[in-house]
Amino acid sequence: MSIRLKENKARRILIANRGEIAARIAKACRELGHTAIGLWTDNEVHARHLEFCDEWAHLEGTGNTETYLNQDKIIKIAKELKVDAVHPGYGFLSENGGFAEALSNNDIIFIGPHIEAIKIMGDKATSKTLAKESGVPVVPGSADAVKSVAEAIKIAEEIGYPVLLKAVAGGGGRGMRACADENEIKEQFEAVGRESMAAFGNGDLLVEKLVLNPRHIEVQILADKHGNVFHFFERECSVQRRHQKIVEEAPSPFIGDDEELRQKICQTAVKLSKAVKYDSAGTVEFIMAEDKSFYFLEMNTRIQVEHPITEEITGMDLIVCMIQSALGEDLQIPSQDFITRSGHAIECRICAEDPITMLPAPGVVTGFETNFPQGIRFDNCLFKDLEVTPDFDPMVGKLIAKGVVRDVAIRKMESALEGLYIEGLKTNIPLHKIILANQNFRDGNYSTSFIGVEKPQEQITNNIDYTSFYMKLAGIEARRMGL
Amino acid sequence: MRTYLIDAEKNELIIDLTKTLVHSKELIEFEFSTLQDNEIVHRENIFVRKLAGRYFASNDQKNWVKLAPQNLPKKFLNVDRVFDIYRGFKPSGLSDGNDGELLTQMPGKVVKILVATGDEVVEGQTLVILEAMKMENEIKAGLDGVVKNIHVSVGDALDQGVLMLELE
Q: Any catalytic annotation for residue A406?
């Protein structure tokens, strides 16, 4: 006789996503006894994630805007299939308040936080204001545009040098200048103003504290509809390229053994989540300065790509909890004290991209095989003959290694990367190998400028590996000969 | 058997299977050499054995590497370069630099003959279409000239190294 803790009604859940996360969600739905409904599009007929779903539906179209970003089509399918809830995964419509609202107007549950939380946290200005009001530190600086050099210097002296002169309308690194002292502000103020005027049609400037060599540290939050908010410790995601994370780890090597700091940053995240009455899985992102002061960056109101490392160190299933929370069920977590961590986990994002230029490289997987050590988790949607199209994200899998301490996790990851064979298309596996071998990475001594400073891509040797070619050819010949 | 590996920038590697030694039912030894400007730049012997239905390869018979299951791959990867594989023939646009004799580089069936005796042809022009490995392969002229003799006809099943056509 099977024992169930609690009989919950079986629901129909539509997964409005693809790839590994769709497979991950489908598995969680099945575990909970719900029906997982997967989607396929015209440019991805052989979608691997469908294998894990109970029902399939056709989402017509090829491009992102026609398919997973198309609210109307997804809502139409959801209504036709009489689904109870929609899980958006990450990316696509996961942080779209309008989509959540449209679903709720049709009496369909959006598996994510309430609409108000998505809207407040989705806007840089309102999220910062809320953070300030709740006593969460934000990067110090002027609240509004500064009018003169004198005012800029006055503020800079209050917050301390170095500071950043930043265009109000700026973005993407333009209209920004670092100033180390008073004289530099005097020199730069007008120039940055002119530059911003020319680039954005708005010459207004802000003065903000410049955080040198920042660390990207984020706290995993899980909350239910009954007002309980839990944190699942932090993750460090400082290895980034083009503002996208490629290697993540938990716990943060920068926080290390500093339990006081860990508690402080985690409680700050809980405080902010409570302020917005958060009721789902989410992540509060911070930057941490060299002196270990930290500032709120943004809150992601969805499940994140790197959630498995938190699952590995806490032993919790975040996707399952997220579904339970959205359905108003009990998370079965008696208190924060029941969430403990052990060991260290690292994640490498495996992308179909050129390891040296780091540009996406679509192609067809002609061979796929794994040979991993104990303690490896590989969330993926890879299979032989998979076609990686330019339409979707080039990430094909997430390799997660867990060890009792960080060194062990690194060792296991190195071994796993050696045992991951993906034939036929370029991947960033060689880049990951170089990053893991980097002394500063091994020492845990790296910031968000790691890729820019260490340039691991330049250390990749791309000499022709004759032996590997010969072995592949020998395999073909042997098969032809009927060995 | 000759294999051409050609990447997106048209860089090419020519690998010849120069020797095959069947040691036993389970073990075969292959000798491969890589050619550059008709000079051998690399030569190595590879052993292949089958264990539990899987192929394992080694160059020293000590360390065995499990080969990823792939029947007839069309691409090989080397860090940041993806090579297209052409077994036994060179793809269109790249001349083989052979003399007037056109030999089959692989067993195949003649699907079409596009020229007749006495025709003038230019380098790179398709002369014969040969079906091999379930693919149609265009056999191209390696030089400018006149078709002197055609030794095959449509439908012929040919072995490797058969003279198909002579140019002058």
A: no
Check if the beta carbon of residue A381 is closer than 8 Å to that of residue A396: yes
Over residues B116-140, the mean pLDDT reads 78
Task: Kindly report the CATH class assigned to B101-167.
Answer: mainly beta
Q: Which CATH class is domain A12-111?
A: alpha beta
Question: What's the distance, CA A401 to chain centroid?
Answer: 17
Alpha carbon of A470: minimum distance to chain B alpha carbons (Å): 7
A402 strand-pairing partners: A345
pTM score of the predicted model = 0.82
Task: Fold for A215-459, please state it.
Answer: D-amino Acid Aminotransferase; Chain A, domain 1 (3.30.470)
With a CB-CB cutoff of 8 Å, which residues 60-79 of chain B face chain A? 65-79
Of the pLDDT bands very low, low, confident and very high (cuts 50, 70, 90), residue A1 is very low
Boundaries of every domain in chain A? 12-111, 149-209, 215-459
- The DSSP secondary structure of A169-238, one letter per residue, reads EEETTEEEEEE-SHHHHHHHHHHHHHHHHHHHS---EEEEE--SS-EEEEEEEEE-TTS-EEEEEEEEEE
Facing residue for B79 by CB, picked from A355, A423, A474: A355
Q: State whether B75 and A467 contact (CB < 8 Å).
A: no
CA atoms of A398 and A408, how far apart (whole Å): 18
* Given the residues A12, A215, A262, A302, the one annotated as active site: A302
Note the pLDDT tens digit of each residue in A278-337.
999 999 999 999 999 999 999 999 999 999 999 999 999 999 999 999 999 989 899 999
- Which chain A residues are Cβ-neighbours of B77 within 8 angstroms? 422-426
Chain A residues with CB-CB distance to B50 below 8 A: 478, 483
pLDDT at A294: 96
Q: Determine the pLDDT at residue A402.
A: 97
Highest CATH level, class, for A149-209: alpha beta
Q: Where are the domains of chain B?
A: 2-87, 101-167
